[in-house]
Amino acid sequence: MSRLLKNLVRRKSATALLTDFREDGHVAGTDLLRTLRLKDLVAFGIAAIIGAGIFSTIGNASAAGGPGVSLLFIFTAIACGFSALCYAQFASTVPVAGSAYTYAYTSFGELVAWIIGWDLLMEYAIGNIAVAISWSDYFTAVLNGIGLAIPEYLTMDYLSASRGYVHALELIAQGHVLSALPGNLQSAYLAWQAAPTLGGVKLIADIPALGITVLITYLVYIGIKESKRTANLLVLLKLIVIFIVISVGAFYVSPANWTPFAPNGISGIMKGVSAVFFAYIGFDAISTTAEECENPQRDLPRAMIYALILCTVLYVVLALILTGMVPYNELAVGDPLTYVFSRVNQDAIAGIVAVSAIVAMASVLLVFQYGQPRIWMTMSRDGLLPAVFSRIHPKHRTPSFATIVTGCVVAIPALFMNLTEVTDLTSIGTLFAFVLVCGGILVQEQHLEVPTSQKAFKVPYINGKFILPLLIIAGLVLLILYNGTTGIAHFFSIEDGSATGWDVFKHKIPLMGFILVIVVMTVLTFTRNLSLIPVLGLLTNLYLMTELGITNWSRFLIWLVLGLVIYFSYGYKNSKLATTKEAAVSGK
Length: 588
Description:
Blueprint: H1 2-8, H2 14-20, H3 38-49, H4 52-65, H5 69-93, H6 100-107, H7 110-145, H8 158-173, H9 183-194, E1 197-198, E2 201-202, H10 207-222, H11 224-249, H12 265-270, H13 273-280, H14 296-325, H15 336-343, H16 347-381, H17 400-416, H18 424-447, H19 467-492, H20 502-505, H21 509-528, H22 532-546, H23 549-574, H24 576-587
Antiparallel strand pairs: 1-2
Organism: Pontibacter silvestris
Keywords: Membrane, Transmembrane, Transmembrane helix, Transport
Main location: membrane
């Protein structure tokens, strides 16, 4: 048993990884091309962050939180900022692809590294599927707007059509008229009715989602230079449109719409946490480019911080513009930017926004499709996945097989299934990665030897011994002031947990666990003088995880258990660290 535990926490040496790093255009053991500069990395960050958040999810978040949702963007950015600083330190000291997977391997050991790597694969895959489906919806709407309609059964996944058809039939049987039903139900009904049948199966598939995934996968496959140029162009177009939206929208803002600022209180603002955080998950994708950067130790930290700051400013301004142009309760729509300009009779701007959404979604898909194969590749190089995943194309110098697999993992589900009910797994997976990266910095500072360099970025050390307890007390005071003693008791959800049965109590488990972690981290920070920034990063991201509900936690744990089965079936025995150690022992 002791040997098993020792193997599960075997670590990759950060010093050895840094030794492998070379600045002559390659990394030892790879053949990737170093071509990305600071501006390219910032563009990648903006491409990943500004997408579905601005053109879709910001609407529902604003409808729940009112103008106060702008504060949620700031809070989420601060939580991401703590994480970004920790990512920056790892990226600077260990400039190797793999993102949080590699960082966990050097700090927590192999088992935790596998867990976070498996988690990242889920996060990127589900996120990409959601983006591909959303892109298809916008693309289809634009084509319909210019009179180039595509049959419904070619623009909708089979699952949505089947469910929508059944629901529409139920409503029609109750006396409702088809033309009066919501647009999505009308489309599903028509798609099911018109779809051709083969062997008793309706031929329904989301062809635009397949098309964009194939196109983006091809770009990522043929090389980093092509991906870089495409990302830079898409980001430029996207920023131009956003500045047009802000400039024109400012003239239609009515300050009266900002009152009340938080109509549903703190709980209303926090309802949008999943949607808002989904907008920020892209900045960690920058760290997957480490082996293709000209100067990763200098440029990766800067790119993460610059992209995060710029995108936060744009999100806050846009949230205020949207809630100022129309009453917040009108924004629960899938295309809020298009809606607000149609509402003020600016149809030309609304049309431009609709077209630009296609560009925005494509850029997000590009960055995510670029990042995921690099994680497959890194895990394969460590022996935790078959060697074919780390195969580098001799001409394009990209992880060719991993890129093709990534394309299939996204394209096939997007073609036939709608995974909207599990898209929150993307947020919970990203938050979990952030928690471990912040924790990894604490572990390294306390126990491990970290390679140092004049070039390396380091998280500023602030002793949290007294500051953290004061911040927690201040938070409790604010909760009491804004929610009262009854509200705070309800916030912590402990007082009536056992009285309402397991079905209610189970939803309180994540928050109760978070309270326990706060107590433990406060004690550790006080006794061991822990650095404040990574501690705050760990706690804020863990709190955001509690907001995602027990259902998402259950699905997340099921995915991790599946990953553990694969690890013990293959990765544990084939790990390069294990085989190297055995070879060393046999050599003796």
